[in-house]
Amino acid sequence: MGSMSEQAPEDLLWYPAQHWCMAYFDTICKNQACENNFSKSFNKWILEARSKPTIKMLEDIRIKVMNRLKDLEEESKKWTRDFSPYAMDLYKDYKIIAHGCHVQSNGDLGYEVAEGVDRHVVSLVRKKCTCRTWDFTGIPCPHATKGLEHDKKEPLNEMNWWYSKEAYMLVCQHKIQLVRGEKFWKVYPSHAMEPPEVHKMIGRPKTKRVRERDEARKMKGLWSKSRKGLKMSCGHCSAPVHNKRNCPLVYSLFLS
């Protein structure tokens, strides 16, 4: 990263490492993702509501959340296993990888599992593996799965409770309550909010967002660099001092 930009490592180290580096992640929350895709998905989910006034926007979001909680609860009732389909798919993938691993035991619920040229240490007592996949996800990793199978235990029993159908149903049980029309709302004078004063700005209102100097610009469906500061050349003779309209070659051909 430093070879590409000297400022990038300094800017990154300014943030606490536990917010972006997996080596410092907290293992209490069973999630190994470090991204902002959730916010992007939410923004796309409320795309139509975002352009509305505040009250209308919040009403649309309330209805969408109310319907989503209902749909998720109905979907979870169709689960054929005690854990979510996502967790079961990941668990099955880990079991396939575990078939290619080799395990050595120290006789104290500790296992040394080799996966190709890599080797990891698994502790069934602490439910930890040096690959940290079990720590982050709460789903037994291939190395833990191999150790559990070596100890004649069912790896599925060691999956975290957060992936269970019971936990999913508890999340969906708190429903959004129904609300009558806006004319029946009780708005107390002490709770009313006055809109801010509108100040007319100088000049013509801008309809496009002001872009940064080095920000990409979308042209003809493709992303390309901004042409600001780029030296233009003639499209006829490729000379950098003029354009095609003022090209002397075109002018001489016209006179002839």
Automatic annotation (TrEMBL):
GO terms for molecular function: zinc ion binding. It comes from the Eukaryota. The keyword Coiled coil applies. The keyword rRNA processing does not apply. Residues 111-152 form the SWIM-type domain. It holds the Pfam family SWIM. Keywords: Coiled coil, Metal-binding, Zinc, Zinc-finger. Residues 55-82 form a coiled coil. This is SWIM-type domain-containing protein. It comes from Solanum bulbocastanum.
